[in-house]
Amino acid sequence: MRILAHAFGKRYDLPIPLYLFLIGGALVVIASFVLVAGRPGRAERTDVADVPHRRRWSMFWSPLSFVVLAGLVACGLFGNQDVPENIVPTSFWVIAWIAVPLTVGVLGDWTGPVNPFGWISRGCDSARLRQAVFGSPDPLPWPRWLGWWPAALLYFVVVCGELIFNLTATTPRNTALGLLVYAVFCALCGLLFGRRWFDRGEVFTVLFDTWGRLGFFRFGAPGRRGFAGGLEVPFAPAVSRIAFVLLLLFSVNFDGLLSTPQWADLERNLPGGDVTFHPTTQHLFRVGSFVVLALALTLVFGLFAFGAARAGRHAGGVRTAVAELLPSLLPIAYGYLLAHNLQYVMVNGQLMFPLIGNPPGSASWPIHLPYPFNDSYEPNPRVLPLSYFWYVAVAVIIAVHVIAVVIAHRHLSTSGRDERSAKRSEYPWLVAMVGYTMLSLWLLAQPLTKETSTTSSLPAHPVVQTTTVTTSE
């Protein structure tokens, strides 16, 4: 029995034809462009480096986060291996991996003092320890070519575990083992590379800092206070940095694609897909598809960004053009994250109540807490009307594309060589935003407009098993 990720519960029929939703979303984006066209833009800050803000550690919360991590690892390695009985899968895959980024995108990056991996890597950044181990107090230089690739690669690995290898990756022991190995890896890299690992390699630090640029509060980070105020700080024009931000966008798109009936039909019609489609073959097919689609979308965005730069007679090539427009893509990535996972978090997040009462899921657990921290609590899968999630998803997708148009306008209107070139440079990016809005609404609507084939053997998202919910996925 299980609750799927961002399913809409019982089948929900759209109140109007799908093409009207698509056209309506496109018209809203175009209307937003008309409203902001001609208004003065705002130049980005160029005096701030693209690195996470190093907040002071808390003498209480930082060690406590390490203790919690150690407890989760112990529960996963030695506790009950049934997913619904162990706290580790829900804590990481629901809370840390999805719910925390959602709150960071609204509030700002508040996670610094409670990120155990960042605390471990910074704690091992010790000249005295390096002197004792390596005979030199100086950290190794961070190769320029390495950039943000460690964070991007680690993010890709976790996303593949979330979307493709989820039946294996989400088991308590495997999740705990992954956390343990990564903690040791952070300690080693912090010792070897010092601050550079924290700034560009530690995936959760980079991830939460990136989402935090959207949040209202800065928590000491550079940028204007207010929503999306941190986007005044430009992203570094490095391929690795661009890849990391685009992965945030494409991973949620791929999540939505896996839940469409068209994808299920595609896998079913592959050789052997109807009967003998081996899970390993399916895994490889999905990983390859993710990489190919990510590269294809990167190419499309790159062409439109370069077209906008050429129309505005900007200096620089494709990489610079994409990096300058990355701030307008981050709200879109967050909007997809929220639209795809709002119901998932609101339903499966309730599982934390009984799991807190018995974290390892052991029958001999000696502590007995009152309701709702015991097995008598059952999550409510109908916490809100089913139509609510659809309308919120539609509103969010349209809103973030409008925000993207506004942010892109602020940049393009101040970067053109002259006023006429600046106005002309906005049209290619507007076309990209309109097309992407329609694609996003289409992906969201597919599980609602057509029953998905049930022949696909793997779910498209981590599963937290508690109770049955009939879905269209």
What's the structural blueprint in terms of helices and strands?
Elements (H helix, E strand, L loop, with lengths): L17 H19 L24 H18 L8 H21 L8 H8 L3 H8 L14 H15 L2 H4 L2 H22 L1 H6 L2 H10 L26 H20 L2 H8 L10 H33 L6 H31 L3 H6 L28 H30 L3 H31 L24
Q: Could you report the average pLDDT, rounded to the nearest whole number?
A: 86
pLDDT < 50 runs, ≥5 residues: 1-11, 450-460, 462-473
Count of extended strands: 0
Q: Kindly estimate the percentage of residues that lie in beta strands according to DSSP.
A: under 5%
Spatial extent as radius of gyration: 23 Å
Specify the biggest β-sheet.
none
Envelope shape: globular
For the terminal residues, how far apart are their CA atoms? Answer: 15 Å
Number of helices: 17
Class derived from helix and strand content: mainly alpha
H and E string? HHHHHHHHHHHHHHHHH
Q: Summarize the amount of helix as a percent range.
A: 55-70%
Q: What's the number of domains?
A: 2
Give your account of this protein's structure.
With 473 residues, this protein is mainly α. It has two domains: 1-40 and 234-473, no CATH class; 45-221, no CATH class. It is built from 17 helices and no strands. Helix 4 (116-123) runs parallel beside helix 8 (172-193) and helix 13 (279-311) packs across helix 14. The longest helix has 33 residues, at 279-311. The radius of gyration is 23 Å and the shape is globular. The two termini are 15 Å apart. Mean pLDDT is 86; it is low at 1-11, 450-460 and 462-473.
